[in-house]
Amino acid sequence: MAAEDTQSWTISYKGMSSDNIKGLVLALSSSIFIGASFIVKKKGLKKAGASGTRAGVGGYSYLYEPLWWAGMITMIVGEVANFAAYAFAPAILVTPLGALSIIIRHAANSFPKLCIYAALAHIILREKLNVFGILGCVLCVVGSTTIVLHAPQEQEIHSVTEVWVLATEPAFLFYAALVIAGVLILIFHFIPQYGQTHIMIYIGICSLVGSLSVMSVKALGIALKLTFSGMNQLIYPQTWAFTMVVITCVVTQLNYLNKALDTFNTAIVSPIYYVMFTSFTILASMIMFKDWDRQNPTQIVTEMCGFVTILSGTFLLHKTKDMVDGVPMRLPVYTNEADGSDLEGIPLKCQDSLRSS
Length: 357
Description:
Elements: H1 2-12, H2 18-51, H3 66-88, H4 91-94, H5 99-110, H6 118-124, H7 131-150, H8 160-167, H9 170-194, H10 199-228, H11 237-263, H12 266-288, H13 297-319, E1 323-324, E2 327-328, E3 333-335, E4 342-344, H14 351-356
Antiparallel strand pairs: 1-2, 3-4
């Protein structure tokens, strides 16, 4: 009986395909670069805002700041790796690995002088990483590993026209229409009234648009992968249609992500953006590529448990980032912009933003 169970498990679990492994390596590389870029761009935005109009109120002085461009180049390198990862692996494998970039951002926020991994800072620089920070990192890694080991195999696609058929099915068209309508309502109705006070406005736009951009990036990545393998996909108009969607979505994301980073605290923006972006992307991938149709219920539940584990680790990292050896540090005191009183805690908005508003 035991031998039969072992044989049955071996048949059901075929391991990671070579494409999934390539996608995994590229996704990990992407997390390193993107995680570091958040901090560099943030520093560039703050420096530009000190001498010009802040991005949060519609300014573009950061375009003249070399530090912001350094972060932007780092982010582009990470996004290129991320772009390539989607060509090899399903979105449900690639997207949740963004939690690893959260770890890097946490390390950089804790040790801004060097912007390196928390582990290296702990070992080499003798910096203190509290037990809850270590536990948060472990939870993110365990959750990511769980998803990696149970991710579905990449769907065999032989032409960009096959992706176009998936993208034009009624279910995904309905989802895309809802996303576009929601984004337009947020931009034209909610931003003028609540953009500077409600963090979910900017992040909601980035996350909704991001889910469409990931699907288009995956389609374009597949087209380029097939082209490089000898099957030219550039002759199909669908390839260029996906390219235009990618450009439009990425520009929109960058614009409103800059506004979110400049207006609100990075420690709050990062986890909320990760959770919303990942959730909408997995939903879009389920609808368009039907990832879970190729999996049994056990694998699906395990992946969801892995995702929840990552969310728990992300929450723990940011909730305890100011603790030392499990004991809360005295939280910074800041001025409440409403009545001028002094409050203790982590402000929702950046202090530069509070002074400028």
